[in-house]
Amino acid sequence: MKARILGLICAAASTAALAAEPAVPYPAGYRDWHHVKSMVIEQGHPLFGSFGGIHHIYANAKALKGYRGKTFPDGSVIIFDLLEAVHEGNAVTEGARKVVGVMHKDSKRYKATGGWGFEGFGGGDPGNRVVGNNAASACFACHQPQKDQDYTFSRLRD
Amino acid sequence: MKARILGLICAAASTAALAAEPAVPYPAGYRDWHHVKSMVIEQGHPLFGSFGGIHHIYANAKALKGYRGKTFPDGSVIIFDLLEAVHEGNAVTEGARKVVGVMHKDSKRYKATGGWGFEGFGGGDPGNRVVGNNAASACFACHQPQKDQDYTFSRLRD
């Protein structure tokens, strides 16, 4: 009985620890934000396994200020919207959504990962969080060398 | 002398006729409009000569209403923003801008071409009009079979 109670306490503590990691909000309305740039990642590319397809980067108004300056202000949100790339008839068209990747700037809440919260919504479903508490290893590890660009890869184009 | 004057009058009349064709305005600020969809047209595609590269479709607020309804209200503007597609390292990235294509709805001014004015701005330069008075043959001829979608090809996606 004692062991079972201990187990329950541990499970509760573990849930509390998970809940303590501040969840990145789903970026409602992001399809109306500024379209920054796009890219197609094809078979053979080192990132094909994770990011194969056609992706579009979107930025909210605060993130646009960040792209134009040196750092991104708190509240900046950058979207990596990944769709299947359908190769057919010498054209590439857009297929189903694979994931909506989010970088959400909050320098206090996400201090451990460069001030950015990272999340991925599988299939674009707000209820399907594919990163969760793994932001440090699953996302920030690759973004960390980009410190000079406030941990972002994309740049604004005309 | 009489012939020379007549020639000048004819030239003036011809210029007046050209000017009478209502010019499609350059779509200032279109990069902040809603990003509708994207596509890559590759070598071997029947439209590669004219539209090879990666293109993005943008719509202003009125055009968004049009996509959601049956016809596009006057003032709707749809952009076909064509960039070079750079194939390298198993990826396709965006290169220089090739043309900014514009469809501008004004059912009275552009009655002869389905209520749409067509223009292309070479390299995205507002001063470099590549369609001019050739909208009927250079643009509308291909759009005409799309009458059921108010002469547009693109559809809105999530």
Task: Please give a quick description of this structure.
The structure is a homodimer of 158-residue chains. Chain A has four helices and five strands; from the N terminus they run H-E-H-E-H-E-E-E-H.
Secondary structure elements and pairings:
2 copies of one chain form a homodimer.
Chain A (H helix, E strand, L loop, with lengths): L1 H19 L13 E8 L6 H4 L1 E7 L1 H8 L8 E12 L2 E15 L10 E7 L12 H9 L15
Antiparallel strand pairs in A: 1-2, 2-3, 3-4, 4-5
Tell me what the structure shows:
The structure is a homodimer of 158-residue chains. Chain A has 158 residues and is of the alpha+beta class. Helix content of chain A is 25%, strand content 31%. Chain A is globular, with a radius of gyration of 18 Å. The model of chain A is unreliable at 5-20 (pLDDT under 50). The A-B interface holds A 31-32, 34-35, 37-45, 48, 54, 56, 58, 89-94, 97, 124, 157-158 and B 31-32, 34-35, 37-45, 48, 54, 56, 58, 89-94, 97, 124, 157-158.
Structural class of chain A: alpha+beta
What's the alpha carbon Rg of chain A, rounded to whole Å? 18 Å
Main pleated-sheet profile of chain A: 5 strands, antiparallel
Number of strands of chain A: 5
Mean pLDDT of chain A: 91
Along the chain, the helix and strand elements of chain A come as HEHEHEEEH
Strand content of chain A: 25-35%
Helix % of chain A is 25-40%
Instruction: Measure the end-to-end span of chain A.
Output: 66 Å
What is the 3D form of chain A?
globular
The quaternary state of the protein chains shown equals homodimer
**Which strand order does the major sheet of chain A show?**
1-2-3-4-5
Main interface pair? Answer: A-B, 27 and 27 residues
Low-confidence stretches of chain A: 5-20
Q: Number of helical segments of chain A?
A: 4
